[in-house]
Design a protein that fits this description.
- There is one protein chain.
- The protein is α+β, with helices and mostly antiparallel strands.
- 59% of the residues lie in helices and 16% in strands.
- A 3-stranded antiparallel sheet has the order 1-2-3.
- Helix 1 runs antiparallel to helix 3.
- The longest helix has 32 residues.
- The model has no long low-confidence stretch (mean pLDDT 83).
Length: 110
Amino acid sequence: MAKGFNRGPAMGGQQSGMMQQLQQMQKKMEIAQAKLAEETVTVTTGGGAIKIVMTGDQKCKSVEISPEFLKDADAEMLQDMILSAVNMALDEARVLQEKLMGPLASGLPF
């Protein structure tokens, strides 16, 4: 068998440069993901009757319901208000996620 027969094409520096770029991108992604886990969005519905706090990585941190709202609300209205607030919070968390992660995805060398 000839020497070097099983070796792939010589890419040397080009391949190592791409690996470095990918490693840097991975570090930036990890930092952005950690930042998303720390940042929160807050949404209110019903004139402040329902308040949802959610992290940028879409974990619900709290749900607050105004005691005054409970005096006049029925179960169906409460469910609708909570559902609406949670969906709005998820939308805002996605916007935050796109803001922090979007530039990283566009920098991929593929």
